[in-house]
């Protein structure tokens, strides 16, 4: 699996232009680049939880997906694709299919961390040969920026609005990649849009070609929900990594590996200040909130380093 | 030539499933249908079928995985009861609107609450608008026969709809009866190979399933679905005719029992029809012209045929093993009365709620219903058309 950037980037698009996702949407970037992990000649069935991606890419009678595709409902992308994958194994065994298929499903954090959590957990525990990709934009963006369990602490959302008695979401975010890793599946990785995308491409290919269940958690910023200028997405992602807010790591057969350690960790303010959803943290008198946020980032980073034996 | 055996309703369905040898079965246990996936798992474990069993983590995932598997091109079935089907509710609609011919063995059980594990029809009656074909059985032989006929009906090109094969929880699912089984090879030939026209894993074409449908298309999709449901009626009859040739057992949209010259009729679904037949035999000996119309096919609803079969009766009692809490009666009552009205029937009609949560229904209960029908016919009018049978005082 030697990585060749030029070759990877010149693969034909499997999520075609013409869909109706927003300009600068992180979810779309995640999907297009995960699909670059597929080897040419291999076919795929793409699953999709209800969400922005589904309603914008498969509006009857048009589909932007070059592969076979199934959307079922919001909370069952894991179970649905486990049915497709099982059908493949039977039909292949019976000699009714000759081509090789891979199974990849996309869900936002609403469909993955929350309403689809049980279905995902079941599919992972049963170890179906599939990849579940969460494009984590940290809120229910499709319905209009409501908080999810992936929403970071203090974020302003439409169900955790900042007000005279509220500093945004009171709770911390759920660490889903760790939870899925504890399912003891063959492959789990966390990534985002980082440098030349090698991290994402390599992890996507590994996830797709590892036999058994695999889970990819991709931080996929949403310009509308996070409130930043659309063109800044790569800078936002870079700051997420350099502040240790969104560490890049992999768990292969239970073995944790840290893929990047900033030489000089940046303070969390650098990540927060770019985003309108954290604007209130920079009001005078709210410095303690940023301190709290920093403490939480550091605590999680230490846990991760311990797991990665660093 | 068939072979005789002593089987519970659940065993009979499991054997029908083994003989069909489907591609995929996702299932989650719930009383009283648990035995079906349990028996089937042992067939898988012993290599008696080529099926992949998916031990899903909930009924919602059972139907979700069934949708995935069927859309992928695999013949798929599952089994459930009561709250299990309630958890599938959203997915029942998705399966039907995607026109996926999944077969569901439903062992009817009361919906919570209060929680109750015994028979009534509230689960399937609640799903009557989900767009599934619904077939009901009186006894173990019928549920076996209905299940063998399920895929040929559901997969027919004029239909392509999921099908629910219903039987009464515990009353038939756990009671052991003598039944006649078909030979494995006969079932295999009758059901045939599954050859879907479009599916996800087709080497020759790609396919997308489950679109976002805006107002421009949604209504047309529903109309096509409604047309497929209407088409199912003839297909059910055609498949029954073909089934009679291999089994010698005849089925229609419904069964009539001593109805041809009856003055008083009851319309009933499921195992209580057997009890009602005993009541009718007793009453006939006493000179009372009693008869029965036992529903087999509830979706699509054969309204015209039912009205025609009841055209000559003086009074009819429609028996509902489910409440709809409309303050007007049960679901079967509403549909049969609408059918009678549309046919300009002169029959006086009354609706009974009975047997909820497994409440026993005995011959004397049914005889009392006929006694009430005689009174109604004599009075020439119905006082209180919405009644309960066998309620504790």
Structural commentary:
The complex is a heterodimer of chains A (310) and B (393). By secondary structure, chain A is an alpha/beta fold. Chain A has helices at residues 5-9, 26-35, 52-57, 77-93, 109-114, 117-125, 176-181, 198-209, 223-226, 233-242, 269-272, 287-307; strands at residues 43-48, 68-71, 101-108, 131-136, 162-163, 166-167, 187-192, 214-219, 249-252, 255-258. Chain A has one domain (5-307): Thiamin diphosphate (ThDP)-binding fold, Pyr/PP domains (Rossmann fold). In chain A, α2 (26-35) packs across α8 and α4 (77-93) packs parallel to α6. The longest helix of chain A has 21 residues, at 287-307. Chain A is globular and about 70 Å long. The model of chain A has no long low-confidence stretch (mean pLDDT 97). The longest helix of chain B is centred in the middle third of the chain and has 33 residues, at 215-247. In chain B, 42% of the residues lie in helices and 19% in strands. Chain B is α/β, with parallel strands linked by helices and 393 residues long. Chain B has twelve helices and 16 strands. A six-stranded mixed sheet of chain B has the order 10-12-11-14-15-16, sandwiched between helices. Chain B has a five-stranded mixed sheet with strand order 4-5-7-6-13, with helices on both faces. Chain B has a two-stranded antiparallel sheet with strand order 1-8. The mean pLDDT of chain B is 97. The chains are: A alpha/beta (310), B alpha/beta (393). Chains A and B meet through β2, α4 and α6 of A and β3, α3, α4 and β9 of B. β2 (68-71) of chain A pairs parallel with β9 (208-209) of chain B, so a sheet runs across the interface.
Lay out the secondary structure.
The complex is a heterodimer of chains A (310) and B (393).
Chain A: H1 5-9, H2 26-35, E1 43-48, H3 52-57, E2 68-71, H4 77-93, E3 101-108, H5 109-114, H6 117-125, E4 131-136, E5 162-163, E6 166-167, H7 176-181, E7 187-192, H8 198-209, E8 214-219, H9 223-226, H10 233-242, E9 249-252, E10 255-258, H11 269-272, H12 287-307
Parallel strand pairs in A: 1-2, 1-3, 3-4, 4-8, 7-8
Antiparallel strand pairs in A: 5-6, 7-9, 9-10
Helix pairs in contact in A: 2-8, 4-6
Chain B: E1 3-8, H1 9-20, E2 24-27, H2 35-45, E3 52-55, H3 59-72, E4 77-80, H4 82-97, E5 103-108, H5 122-126, E6 133-136, H6 140-154, E7 163-168, E8 176-181, H7 184-191, E9 208-209, H8 215-247, E10 254-257, E11 264-269, H9 272-285, E12 290-295, E13 297-299, H10 303-309, E14 315-320, H11 331-342, E15 348-353, H12 363-379, E16 386-388
Helix pairs in contact in B: 1-2, 1-6, 3-4, 6-8, 9-12, 10-11
């Amino acid at each position: 699996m030697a990585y060749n950037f030029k070759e990877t980037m010149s693969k034909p698009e499997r999520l075609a232009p013409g869909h109706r996702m927003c300009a600068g949407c992180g979810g779309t970037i995640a999907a297009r680049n995960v699909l670059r992990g597929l080897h040419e000649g291999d076919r795929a069935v793409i699953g999709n939880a209800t969400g922005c991606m589904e309603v914008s890419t498969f509006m009857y009678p048009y589909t932007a997906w070059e592969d076979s595709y199934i959307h079922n409902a919001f909370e069952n992308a894991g179970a649905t694709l486990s049915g497709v994958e099982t059908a493949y194994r039977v039909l292949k065994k019976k000699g009714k299919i000759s081509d090789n298929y891979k199974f990849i499903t996309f869900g936002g954090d609403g469909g993955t961390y929350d309403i689809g959590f049980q279905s995902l957990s079941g599919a992972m525990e049963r170890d179906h040969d599939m990849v579940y990709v969460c494009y984590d934009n940290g809120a229910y963006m499709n319905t209009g920026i409501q908080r999810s369990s992936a929403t970071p602490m203090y974020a302003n959302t439409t169900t955790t609005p900042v007000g005279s008695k509220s500093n945004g979401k009171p709770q911390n975010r759920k660490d889903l990649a760790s939870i899925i890793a504890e399912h003891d599946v063959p492959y789990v990785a966390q990534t985002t849009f980082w440098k030349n995308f090698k991290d994402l491409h390599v992890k996507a290919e590994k996830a797709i070609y590892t036999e058994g269940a695999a889970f990819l958690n991709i931080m996929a910023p949403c310009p509308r929900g996070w409130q930043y200028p659309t063109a800044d997405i790569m800078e936002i992602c870079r700051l997420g990594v350099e502040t240790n807010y969104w560490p890049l790591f992999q768990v292969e057969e239970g073995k944790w590996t840290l893929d990047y350690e900033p030489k000089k960790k940046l303070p969390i303010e650098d990540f927060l200040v770019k985003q309108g959803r954290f604007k209130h943290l920079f009001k005078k008198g709210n410095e303690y909130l940023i301190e709290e946020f920093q403490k939480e980032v550091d605590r999680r980073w230490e846990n991760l380093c311990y797991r990665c034996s660093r | 030539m068939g072979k005789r055996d002593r089987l519970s309703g659940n065993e009979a369905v499991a054997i029908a499933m083994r003989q069909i040898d489907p591609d995929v079965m996702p299932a989650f246990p719930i009383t009283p249908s648990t035995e079906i996936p349990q028996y089937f798992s042992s067939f898988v474990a012993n290599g008696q079928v080529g099926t992949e069993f998916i031990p899903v983590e909930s009924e919602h995932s059972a139907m979700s995985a069934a949708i995935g598997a069927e859309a992928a091109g695999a013949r798929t079935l599952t089994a459930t009861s009561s709250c299990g089907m309630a958890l599938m509710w959203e997915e029942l609609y998705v399966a039907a609107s995607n026109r996926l011919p999944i077969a569901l063995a439903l062992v009817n059980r009361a919906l919570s609450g209060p929680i109750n594990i015994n028979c009534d029809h509230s689960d399937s009656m609640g799903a009557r608008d989900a767009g599934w074909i619904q077939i009901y059985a009186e006894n173990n032989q019928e549920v076996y026969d209905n299940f063998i006929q399920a895929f040929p009906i559901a997969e027919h090109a004029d239909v392509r709809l999921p099908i629910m094969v219903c039987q009464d929880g515990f009353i038939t699912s756990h009671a052991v009866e003598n039944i006649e089984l078909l030979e494995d090879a006969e079932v295999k030939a009758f059901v045939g190979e599954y050859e879907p026209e479009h599916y996800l894993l087709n080497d020759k074409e790609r396919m997308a399933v489950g679109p976002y449908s805006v107002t421009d298309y949604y209504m047309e999709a529903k109309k096509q679905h409604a047309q497929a449901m209407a088409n199912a009626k003839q297909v059910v009859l055609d498949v029954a005719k073909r089934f009679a040739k291999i089994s010698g057992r005849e089925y229609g949209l419904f069964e009539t029992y001593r109805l041809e010259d009856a003055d008083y009729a009851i319309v009933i679904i499921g195992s209580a029809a057997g009890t009602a037949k005993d009541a009718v035999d007793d009453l006939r000996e006493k000179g009372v012209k009693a008869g029965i119309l036992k529903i087999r096919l509830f979706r699509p609803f054969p309204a015209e045929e039912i009205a025609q079969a009841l055209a000559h009766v003086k009074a009819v009692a429609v028996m509902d093993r489910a409440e709809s809490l409309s303050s007007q009666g049960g679901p079967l009552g509403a549909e049969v009365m609408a059918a009678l009205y549309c046919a300009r029937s002169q029959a006086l009609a009354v609706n009974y709620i009975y047997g909820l949560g497994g409440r026993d229904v005995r011959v004397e209960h049914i005889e009392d219903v006929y006694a009430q029908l005689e009174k109604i016919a004599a009075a020439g009018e119905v006082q209180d058309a919405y009644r309960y049978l066998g309620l504790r005082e």
